[in-house]
Automatic annotation (TrEMBL):
Pathway note: Cofactor biosynthesis; NAD(+) biosynthesis; quinolinate from iminoaspartate: step 1/1
EC id: 2.5.1.72
Any GO BP: 'de novo' NAD+ biosynthetic process from L-aspartate
One Gene Ontology term of the molecular function aspect: metal ion binding
Gene Ontology CC annotations of this record: cytosol
Pfam families, A to Z: NadA (PF02445)
Organism (species): Amycolatopsis sacchari
Requisite cofactors: [4Fe-4S] cluster
InterPro entries: NadA, NadA_sf
Gene3D superfamilies per UniProt: NadA-like
Protein name: Quinolinate synthase
Domain of life assignment: Bacteria
SUPFAM superfamilies linked to this entry: NadA-like
Alphabetized UniProt keyword annotations: 4Fe-4S, Cytoplasm, Iron, Iron-sulfur, Metal-binding, Pyridine nucleotide biosynthesis, Transferase
Length: 335
């Protein structure tokens, strides 16, 4: 598996038409496979999936599913998490090269060295990490339960939070704890959604709600805009991708500015077709998520590829931290 930013050519050449959809469904039945798609997948993949959702919801669904095969349309760490939770199931990802720049921002060796500098600290890792990092972790979290996870740790214990600096800053703000050390990693897609861009869009759309993923470079700026009164505080919502879908159903706003990967707009528009959802940055597309093409999904189901493996010892150590993650906090939201 590789997740460098070099150009990786995805499997291509197939239109997601009705014949494709029928063949995908037939092959999935034949393999006793459940199809899971993250909210950042392209619309055709989201629509063919049995379940779409955020990383926490999909982890829970994968763990609870009766299917013998899980086809994970998302990035590699998500499929790896499903394998960690269900070692006896076959877990397929349609293109194993679909990595994650955030997961690449800390290695197992780096985390071990960091832990050695802070003996006794509790390690909280975002689910966007490799199995090796999860094996060094006490509790995993996702964007939808990060605050609950850190709040569950006794006040007097130091916390090492990795690898996302923006989510870490959000957790620090929400919990009010000053004994959290945050790793300086970031996702290249979310870091690119910046404060000035958000401020400009918010000024041009004063009635819009702001839905902001906590991995964004602009999350702090959004709260600053609220703090100085440029945007009413109740209009700024820092949300996981699954919680954005719930918020779309609940809001009274007629328009919403969305700060996250643009694949999210598809689920939001389906959930609330009467609302005008606009991306804060319409170039915010994750090339790794988009490697799961219609051609890649078909190949995956035909060939039983790419199969995800996690060595038993790493998986056993990682499972404890992932298990704690899925037990803490409210369901993140999947369909
Ligand atoms: P969610 O946990 O909100 O699904 O986000 C996962 C992710 O990769 C964000 O970039
Ligand atoms: Fe990773 Fe960023 Fe892509 Fe999410 S959007 S999968 S964090 S590279």
């Amino acid at each position: 598996m590789t997740s460098t930013l070099q150009e990786l050519t995805p499997y291509s050449g197939i239109e997601p038409d009705e014949a494709w959809a029928e063949e995908v469904r037939r092959l999935a039945r034949e393999r006793d496979a459940v199809l899971l798609a993250h909210n950042y997948q392209s619309p055709a993949i989201q629509d063919i999936a049995d379940h779409t959702g955020d990383s926490l919801a999909l982890s829970r669904i994968a763990a609870a599913s009766d299917a013998s095969t899980i086809v994970f349309c998302g990035v590699h760490f998500m499929a790896e998490t499903a394998k960690i939770l269900s070692p006896d199931k076959t877990v397929l990802i349609p293109d194993a090269r679909a990595g994650c720049s955030l997961a690449d921002s800390i290695t197992g060796a780096q985390l071990r060295a960091w832990k050695a500098e802070h003996p006794g600290a509790v390690v909280v890792s975002y689910v966007n990490t490799t199995a090796e990092v999860k094996a060094e972790t006490d509790i995993c979290c996702t964007s939808s339960n990060a605050v609950d996870v850190v709040a569950s740790i006794p006040e007097d214990r130091e916390v090492l939070f990795c690898p996302d600096q923006f989510l870490g800053a959000h957790v620090k703000r929400e919990t009010g704890r000053d004994n959290i050390h945050v790793w300086a990693g970031e996702c290249h897609v979310h870091a690119g959604i910046n404060g000035p861009e958000l401020a400009e869009r918010a000024a041009a759309n004063p009635d819009a709600d702001l839905f902001i993923h906590p991995e964004c470079g602009c999350a702090t700026s959004a709260l600053y805009l609220a703090g100085e009164g440029t945007v009413p505080r109740e209009k700024v919502k820092i949300l996981s991708t699954g919680d954005m879908v719930h918020a779309a159903r609940d809001t009274k706003a007629r328009s919403v500015l969305v700060a996250t990967e643009i694949g999210m707009l598809h689920q939001l528009r389906k959930a609330a077709p009467e609302i005008d959802f606009q991306a804060v940055n319409d170039r915010a597309s994750c090339r790794f998520m988009k490697m799961i093409t219609p051609a890649a999904l078909l190949r995956s189901l035909r060939e039983g590829a790419d199969e995800v493996h996690v060595d038993q010892e790493t998986a056993a150590r990682a499972r404890a931290s992932v298990q704690r993650m899925i037990e803490i906090g409210q369901p993140g939201g999947g369909e």
